[in-house]
Q: What sequence folds into this?
């Protein structure tokens, strides 16, 4: 069995081991499990008929070839959509082929893997019903101790906090360019004060964690988040440079498409005498 790192540093398989199998599908989470990963990230949205479906993008066309959004289709229609062909086309280096792999529901994921994972559930859409319906599935599978709820959408984060105060709730923060644009600041404006406002917002709401893009993280940001009682982890790991940056600044963990590469780096660090 490969080494496992549930604490203190979290190796989180982003949409499953999505560098090796189609994101948010059973094969991606199966591969993550084979790698010995404890924590997995998944994206949830609502179908037209109120079913919680695993899918990341705001629109379906790029990855399924179908029109519209998840919300525009019934679950029956969505579960016939093929995401494996897109993966094969965009990952020609992967020998295994996944054409015909279809979208899944969160219920199917929980049914398949049960409590073998810690699930980081990203609330991807702003549907008000999404939080409660997702929590219904968590409860039905007795996974309250195996989930965290997370989102870039502050209103969704607060709904999660209000409806499930016993479940850790995490806020993801946008990248530097978008933060500056939304704040009306120049492209070269100092970033840390703006980042601190989001840390404060999360801390004041009694959230558990904040997540920032690896490229935007600094030791000062990490130290400030910890001083406010928050865990802090990195997202947008595009390669080894981002992974190493997140490790160097002291991130609590990271979501990565390549959990095996991160595990190897942690082992190397441990052998070299790191903590």
A:
């Amino acid at each position: 069995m490969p080494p496992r790192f549930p604490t203190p540093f979290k190796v989180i398989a982003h949409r499953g081991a999505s560098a090796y199998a189609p994101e948010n599908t059973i094969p991606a989470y199966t591969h993550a499990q084979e790698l010995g990963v404890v924590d997995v990230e998944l994206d949830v949205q609502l179908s037209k008929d109120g079913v919680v479906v695993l899918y990341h993008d705001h629109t379906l066309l790029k990855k399924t070839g179908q029109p519209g959004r998840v919300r525009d289709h019934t679950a029956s229609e969505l579960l016939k959509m093929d995401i494996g062909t897109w993966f094969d086309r965009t990952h020609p280096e992967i020998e295994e082929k996944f054409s015909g792999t279809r979208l899944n529901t969160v219920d199917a994921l929980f049914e398949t893997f049960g409590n073998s994972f810690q699930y980081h559930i990203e609330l991807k859409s702003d549907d008000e019903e999404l939080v409660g319906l997702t929590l219904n599935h968590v409860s039905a599978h007795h996974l309250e101790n195996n989930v965290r709820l997370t989102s870039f959408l502050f209103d969704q984060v607060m709904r999660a906090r209000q409806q499930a105060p016993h479940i850790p709730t995490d806020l993801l923060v946008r990248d530097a360019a978008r933060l500056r644009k939304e704040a009306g600041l120049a492209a070269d404006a100092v970033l840390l004060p703006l980042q601190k406002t989001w840390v404060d917002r999360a801390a004041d709401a009694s959230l558990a964690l904040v997540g920032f893009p690896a490229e935007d993280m600094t030791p000062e940001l990490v130290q400030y988040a910890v001083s406010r009682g928050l865990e802090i982890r990195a997202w947008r790991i595009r390669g080894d440079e981002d992974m190493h940056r997140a490790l160097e600044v002291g991130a609590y963990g990271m979501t990565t498409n390549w959990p095996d590469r991160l595990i190897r780096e942690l082992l190397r660090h441990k052998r070299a005498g790191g903590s």
Notes: Confidence is low (pLDDT under 50) at residues 1-6. The CA atoms of residues 109 and 253 lie 23 Å apart. The first helix runs from residue 26 to 34.
